[in-house]
Amino acid sequence: MNFYEHTIIARQDASPSQLKQLQDKYADLVSKNKGKVVKTESWGLLNLAYLIKKNKKGNYIHFKIEGFGETISELEKNEKIDKALLRYLTVRVKKLDLKTNYFEKKSEELREKSN
């Protein structure tokens, strides 16, 4: 099995329930295709570097996946036709970093520094 980091960017006007549905949909798709979602991170609404389909912002969801190439092929095939998504990116990695969360809320970091 290989390790992958997979990020999707959903439209900025998606509701929290729609984002949860997207997250569950793609996690189920991975598990149906002999893969396993090890960790899921919701990075929230972030600015895009440039306009994508008339959107200035996007909701980021990041998956850490253990699976095969066919698992990722099936995942990306379904994401191509999903109108709720702006972009997706998959990167194969040698080892999954499960400890570091790069997009934690700033307020949590400030509280830790003040203590």
Model description:
33% of the residues lie in helices and 42% in strands. It has 115 residues and is an alpha+beta fold. It has one domain (2-97): Alpha-Beta Plaits (2-Layer Sandwich). The protein has a four-stranded antiparallel β-sheet, with helices on one face. A hairpin with a 2-residue loop joins strand 2 and strand 3 (55-67). The termini are far apart. The model has no long low-confidence stretch (mean pLDDT 87).
Topology:
Layout lengths: L1 E9 L5 H17 L3 E17 L2 E13 L1 H12 L4 E9 L12 H9 L1
Antiparallel strand pairs: 1-3, 1-4, 2-3
Short description:
This protein is α+β, with helices and mostly antiparallel strands.
- Category from helices, strands and their pairing: alpha+beta
Q: Got a strand count?
A: 4
Mean pLDDT: 87
Please give the share of residues in helix.
25-40%
Poorly predicted regions: none
Order of the strands making up the biggest sheet: 2-3-1-4
Number of helices: 3
Question: How many domains is the backbone divided into?
Answer: 1
What is the level 1 CATH name?
Answer: Alpha Beta
Main beta sheet: strand number and arrangement?
Answer: 4 strands, antiparallel
User: In the CATH classification, which architecture applies?
Assistant: 2-Layer Sandwich
Gyration radius over CA: 15 Å
How much of the sequence lies in strands comes to 35-45%
The CATH topology turns out to be Alpha-Beta Plaits
CATH superfamily: Ribosomal protein S6/Translation elongation factor EF1B
Short key terms for the protein model shown above:
single chain, 115 residues, alpha+beta, Alpha-Beta Plaits, 4-stranded antiparallel β-sheet, 3 helices, 4 strands, 42% strand
